[in-house]
Amino acid sequence: MAGVVESREWYLAAYAPEGVPTSDHLKLRTVTLSPDVDSIPDHHLIVQNIFISVDPYQRTLMSGLEDGLYFSQTKLNEVVSASTIARVIGSKDSSYRVGDIILNPFGPIAEYCVIPSALYLRKVDPASELPLQEYLSSLGLPGFAAWVGIEVLGDPKPGSNVFVSAAAGGVGMFAGQLAKLKGCRVIGSTGSDEKVKLIKEEFGYDDAFNYKTETDLDAALSKYFPNGIDIYFDNVGGEMLEAVLNHVNKHARIPVCGMISQYKKIWTERQGVRNLLNMVGKEVRMEGFLVGSHLNRFGDFAKEMESYIKEGKISSKLKIYHGIESYLESLGSLFTSSNFGKVIIEVKK
Amino acid sequence: MAGVVESREWYLAAYAPEGVPTSDHLKLRTVTLSPDVDSIPDHHLIVQNIFISVDPYQRTLMSGLEDGLYFSQTKLNEVVSASTIARVIGSKDSSYRVGDIILNPFGPIAEYCVIPSALYLRKVDPASELPLQEYLSSLGLPGFAAWVGIEVLGDPKPGSNVFVSAAAGGVGMFAGQLAKLKGCRVIGSTGSDEKVKLIKEEFGYDDAFNYKTETDLDAALSKYFPNGIDIYFDNVGGEMLEAVLNHVNKHARIPVCGMISQYKKIWTERQGVRNLLNMVGKEVRMEGFLVGSHLNRFGDFAKEMESYIKEGKISSKLKIYHGIESYLESLGSLFTSSNFGKVIIEVKK
């Protein structure tokens, strides 16, 4: 190959300590790169992104606040990152050939890019009959996060009372379905009546409620959990976590996957959780987790989840945005309860 | 035996939702009971208390607030409870003989009482050369709580950075010493300069600070933990827990034994912990515990602790109050940083 290709990419123009990032913070620019494989270092690949995953944690890398969150902040002027599904168009690694489809767990939000052929890249089996985008959803990190929280940390038993917040979201939808498959009684919370319906009808939760209309969370939890909560899969933190801590059973487990209610705020201005003392009396275990620390279990997960998906035992809902230019809008949608299921950008058909 | 014995006992006259209980809430009364063993039911004992353990959790049973704490509230007019060391003076259980010394983990704060010879009573080996009161301290539930938090939940490694709050208290003094014996670097916090000295000189902590003078907890933790905190043995909750969560290392463990800063307050009026989100980024495990759930490990603990005590590897500090009439004062002392080590009442010489 010769010449150059044009590639659009999203970069961080300014930090956004508060609120949802806007076009002041995230900007699209066009760069050129050489498609000539001789132009890249050894153990690198040139790839074209096909699908890009849009996840709440990405927002935490744009605050400019080094407050113990997740990963380091994205540097100003640098391209922001996400999990992507990409096609190899040039390879300086004998394990990858042109045309291979790969899952890149943490790469540039760009149309084309050069990436190291590093540890956690994963090739998609060309014999797989599953849609490619599922490798960013049920079979990717969102599905894996749900599996780690429920199966590794949650210790679900038949009849356990399980509560999942953000239950129609990219991770929550799988958390509840996995708990159901273990014989648990599962209730979800979400931010619209339409999503309540989805959770019950499509994801098979025993029940669900809209936290925006049932604003007395304590009363809601009393109603939906007359026998208390054994496992709370926390995606939201804040007030909901506080309410849950007044309804936990002895030895309850709280795997904390994220706290989306907390991402937009500087921590000293957040409303604190006032009833942690209940964790002593009820002997509660609360555990934050990142999927990266559990990758040794990814194989077990993939095998289990693939068979669930093939047997139709797990339903996966995707919200697809089109074109790389949709990143800003799709990221914002995560914080306004406006989307269903997993948010993904289709960069190229 | 015939006739009657007079026995003084502390009963709950009124609930104390706020503040430290006073003589309005806790009152001493004299009752009579028959020392005749024929007067008691089968599988019961008549005992004379020798030592009574005074512990912070006792205060939580007097608030009248059923808010998920520990055990059920003491009923009004009922005798309040504590761990005691007692002598059997009458027995309707063939496993116990008059003169046996027993540890009663949860019995009436009284000079004499009739108790069921139930599950968790434990006989003190008459061949033991250790002072009896140690069975309420290093060899009793405080020592066991420290052991569970550090060894069962804390996963200490040589070089781990360990922080213990209320480090001169009945549990904290052992938590830090056990961590030191595992090769950890241990720092404690406490409420007076005198106790800082004690912690360093008698308990062998690497360092300690007075949270009443080093009021910028964040700065204090930066100073004492330049490499972050791996294990926080929490006895106090509240502001200190929040400060710790800004200094935790990846995969830190926070066994929560108690939250003494929180006991006096109605939960909705407490200052919340605002930075729980750090638990996700740092993958922190926080776990409340009660010793009652770990009694299957008591034997392992007792063996280990007894050898430490006999070899002089663990120092135990007692603050002895004299006479059952001292209960109110001794309980109050727990909430004013005025005592050192484990608080015990010697009922009878």
UniProtKB/TrEMBL annotation, chains A, B:
TM helices/strands, residue ranges: none
InterPro entries: ADH-like_C, ADH_N_2, ER, GroES-like_sf, MDR_fam, NAD(P)-bd_dom_sf
UniProt xrefs under Pfam families: ADH_N_2, ADH_zinc_N
Protein known as: Enoyl reductase (ER) domain-containing protein
Keyword Oxidoreductase set for record: yes
The organism of origin for this protein: Castanea mollissima (Chinese chestnut)
Keyword Oxidoreductase appears in the UniProt entry: yes
GO molecular function, one term: 2-alkenal reductase [NAD(P)H] activity
Residues annotated as domain Enoyl reductase (ER): 64-345
Source species, domain of life: Eukaryota
Keyword annotations of the record: Oxidoreductase
